[in-house]
Amino acid sequence: MSRVLALSGSLRAASYHTQLLSCLQPLAPEGMHLSLFSGLGELPHFSEDLETDPPVPVRELWQAIADADGLIIATPEYNGAIPGVLKNALDWASRPRGASVLPGHAAMVLSASPGLFGGIRAQAQLREMFALLNVYVVGGPHHSRRPHPPRPHHRS
User: Fold this and answer.
1) What is the pTM of this model?
2) Residues in CB range of 36: below 8 A, 6 or more apart
3) The architecture CATH gives domain 2-137
């Protein structure tokens, strides 16, 4: 059985992203189990001073990622960027230096935004971060906008 860990970058109770992630299990192929990590709001702000004896929520995040075969990250876009709570979680997950639980994982990045750009900038940031962290992002559409219709040819 493959295990996929889902992380929502939103702490809002009625989050579109959390709702989207919770709807994925019935769509998963047979033999794939998705679990939603709900402890992002419990993580302390990242500090190297805490790395050698991390708080319980950090150890829980590390263990959940280590136990997973892959990740699904659903991120909103706040002010053109990923939310601070998600950045904080990824900072923790990338540590301690040289012993991160992230390298080698496959990840899928998605957004569920009613905004014009659909979270594309936040997705791009995650893709860039994952490249640095040796996480393989599953390819596919980078946004949900429809292609522009062909432009009419004008004659002079």
Assistant:
1) 0.85
2) 6, 7, 8, 18, 21, 22
3) 3-Layer(aba) Sandwich (3.40)
